[in-house]
Amino acid sequence: MVQKITCIGAGFVGGPLGTVLAFCCPEISVTVVDKNAARIESWNSDDLPMYEPGLSDIIAQVRQRKDACNLSFSCEIRKAIVESDIIMLCIDTPTKNHGAGSGMALDLAHIQEAVRTIGEVATADKIIVEKSTVPGGTTSIIQDLLEAVSTGTYNFEVLSNPEFLSEGSAVNDLLHPSRVIIGCQRTTSGQLAAEKLAAVYRRWTPHELIITMNQWSAELSKLASNALLAQRISSINSLSAICEAVGADINSVAEACGTDPRIGNKMLQSGLGWGGSCFPKDVAALIYLARSLGLNSVADYWAVVLEMNEDQQSRFAKRILSCMHGCINGKLITILGFAFKQNTSDTKNSPSKNLARELLREGATIHIYDPMVSEAQIYRDVNASDEQSRRLRIFSTAGEACAGADAVVVATEWDQFKTPDICQAPYETNVAVGTNGMHTKDIQNNGAHHEHETGGIDWASIVDNMYRPAFIFDGRNILNAQYLESLGCRYVGIGHLSKWDRQHHGIFAMAPKLYGMI
Ligand code: UDX
């Protein structure tokens, strides 16, 4: 019977995982440990180190158990290891930035350090569960390290149990996993360990969703799942370029393909490209794995998925430039959204970062607003030069960030940025041109402003306060072109041509060539 579980690493995986384990298994004591004291302090406060919908609620519910509270966050790593039956490795495995495999391979230094500590301090048999994304074969490395540093003759069973949660829906994904993969040795003790872990998950997960396999298969499943998902998005984004060139609509194409049940409609949203902690590093790790196995055509195949993602981002930046008459020097461009996707404060590999840098390099002044990302984080990420910093400002409301802008770019699919759907609700638009070149408008929808109904930003007032011509670039295809055009702006999305695009396509499609950009 499992009595105590420790999660090593209080990051995006360990924190939510430990919380959900404690929530679903009141009789198991769960400790989340980390050597970063500030992060642990934050977990122990009301100001959690990350934003995840529902997370603070379930932490509060577990804490309400008072004396029976079975969740703790601590820096006492050694103590937690000694006391635990199961130790879950939730440690970051960033892409290596030095030496062999730099920029591609996963860096296992932190994992190996934690494994050494487990081997050194363990005074009984332990089950070690690899939750972090690792290159295949890591369970054998962990096993070897544990046995080499251990001072006793304890049985260490290493399981691979990759975590498939997505940021922004971590709690829901942990409470309702699509599957739980457990990779174990095909020995009696390996299978017993897998069964112990499966029994923990069965407390809230239907047993048919728990799948066991060998360790290599489990490890590869994680890289493969993320690579396949990233490939889908790169595929739809590649088609979006064709749509823009020929006048087709990527949303229709995605719908047509997605309604085939063999393809399915998920992860087919065309946009600025994928970011985050997992897709970029896992695709790179798969490429590196294939390359190191001498499978060059396999490596080349996955490398194109990565390239397509980078290409999508620079293509969009070029499109902004060409639509704005090939010159954004001295113009004000507002970027709405800095997180790599909605419902998270994470900015890792966010397409907004590259976009902001590229637009700054072109001489634009950049205003940025994101509902969750801190000002300090944005400044750190953009990493602007002294000269560029004078052209970069972060705002705490979308309205202020967009005031006086020449263009607004939606870079993250936050719900609050979405426009009201005007399909069933006709709008009346009266546009009056002000003396400063700005427009004042009166957008009505049966007397009600949609912003108040949707809780979203007030696009009418944003467009009203922009310079003319006012451009809205929709990097996530979440805006209603017809509605925005009714406000008097020029709408440009990804993978489809708006009314304005169609009118000017012939002329401005030539702009990148004219300005020597391609
Ligand atoms: C991903 C996997 O989904 C998850 O299973 C794995 O455990 C970790 O990696 P995550 O990185 O949190 O999760 O985000 P996800 O929702 O998959 O989105 C990744 C990126 O793709 C985001 O930048 C998002 O904006 C983009 N995306 C997603 C698209 O561009 N189009 C889509 O249709 C879906």
UniProtKB/TrEMBL annotation:
<feature type="binding site">
    <location>
        <position position="133"/>
    </location>
    <ligand>
        <name>NAD(+)</name>
    </ligand>
</feature>
<dbReference type="InterPro" id="IPR028357">
    <property type="entry name" value="UDPglc_DH_bac"/>
</dbReference>
<feature type="binding site">
    <location>
        <position position="275"/>
    </location>
    <ligand>
        <name>substrate</name>
    </ligand>
</feature>
<comment type="similarity">
    <text>Belongs to the UDP-glucose/GDP-mannose dehydrogenase family.</text>
</comment>
<dbReference type="InterPro" id="IPR036220">
    <property type="entry name" value="UDP-Glc/GDP-Man_DH_C_sf"/>
</dbReference>
<dbReference type="InterPro" id="IPR028356">
    <property type="entry name" value="UDPglc_DH_euk"/>
</dbReference>
<feature type="active site" description="Nucleophile">
    <location>
        <position position="278"/>
    </location>
</feature>
<comment type="pathway">
    <text>Nucleotide-sugar biosynthesis; UDP-alpha-D-glucuronate biosynthesis; UDP-alpha-D-glucuronate from UDP-alpha-D-glucose: step 1/1.</text>
</comment>
<dbReference type="InterPro" id="IPR001732">
    <property type="entry name" value="UDP-Glc/GDP-Man_DH_N"/>
</dbReference>
<feature type="binding site">
    <location>
        <position position="341"/>
    </location>
    <ligand>
        <name>substrate</name>
    </ligand>
</feature>
<dbReference type="InterPro" id="IPR008927">
    <property type="entry name" value="6-PGluconate_DH-like_C_sf"/>
</dbReference>
<dbReference type="Pfam" id="PF03720">
    <property type="entry name" value="UDPG_MGDP_dh_C"/>
</dbReference>
<feature type="binding site">
    <location>
        <begin position="164"/>
        <end position="167"/>
    </location>
    <ligand>
        <name>substrate</name>
    </ligand>
</feature>
<dbReference type="InterPro" id="IPR014026">
    <property type="entry name" value="UDP-Glc/GDP-Man_DH_dimer"/>
</dbReference>
<dbReference type="InterPro" id="IPR036291">
    <property type="entry name" value="NAD(P)-bd_dom_sf"/>
</dbReference>
<dbReference type="GO" id="GO:0051287">
    <property type="term" value="F:NAD binding"/>
</dbReference>
<feature type="binding site">
    <location>
        <position position="39"/>
    </location>
    <ligand>
        <name>NAD(+)</name>
    </ligand>
</feature>
<dbReference type="Pfam" id="PF03721">
    <property type="entry name" value="UDPG_MGDP_dh_N"/>
</dbReference>
<feature type="binding site">
    <location>
        <position position="167"/>
    </location>
    <ligand>
        <name>NAD(+)</name>
    </ligand>
</feature>
<feature type="binding site">
    <location>
        <position position="222"/>
    </location>
    <ligand>
        <name>substrate</name>
    </ligand>
</feature>
<dbReference type="GO" id="GO:0006024">
    <property type="term" value="P:glycosaminoglycan biosynthetic process"/>
</dbReference>
<dbReference type="Pfam" id="PF00984">
    <property type="entry name" value="UDPG_MGDP_dh"/>
</dbReference>
<keyword id="KW-0520">NAD</keyword>
<protein>
    <recommendedName>
        <fullName>UDP-glucose 6-dehydrogenase</fullName>
        <ecNumber>1.1.1.22</ecNumber>
    </recommendedName>
</protein>
<dbReference type="InterPro" id="IPR014027">
    <property type="entry name" value="UDP-Glc/GDP-Man_DH_C"/>
</dbReference>
<dbReference type="GO" id="GO:0000271">
    <property type="term" value="P:polysaccharide biosynthetic process"/>
</dbReference>
<feature type="binding site">
    <location>
        <position position="281"/>
    </location>
    <ligand>
        <name>NAD(+)</name>
    </ligand>
</feature>
<dbReference type="GO" id="GO:0003979">
    <property type="term" value="F:UDP-glucose 6-dehydrogenase activity"/>
</dbReference>
<dbReference type="GO" id="GO:0005634">
    <property type="term" value="C:nucleus"/>
</dbReference>
<dbReference type="InterPro" id="IPR017476">
    <property type="entry name" value="UDP-Glc/GDP-Man"/>
</dbReference>
<feature type="binding site">
    <location>
        <position position="34"/>
    </location>
    <ligand>
        <name>NAD(+)</name>
    </ligand>
</feature>
<feature type="binding site">
    <location>
        <position position="93"/>
    </location>
    <ligand>
        <name>NAD(+)</name>
    </ligand>
</feature>
<keyword id="KW-0560">Oxidoreductase</keyword>
<feature type="domain" description="UDP-glucose/GDP-mannose dehydrogenase C-terminal">
    <location>
        <begin position="334"/>
        <end position="481"/>
    </location>
</feature>
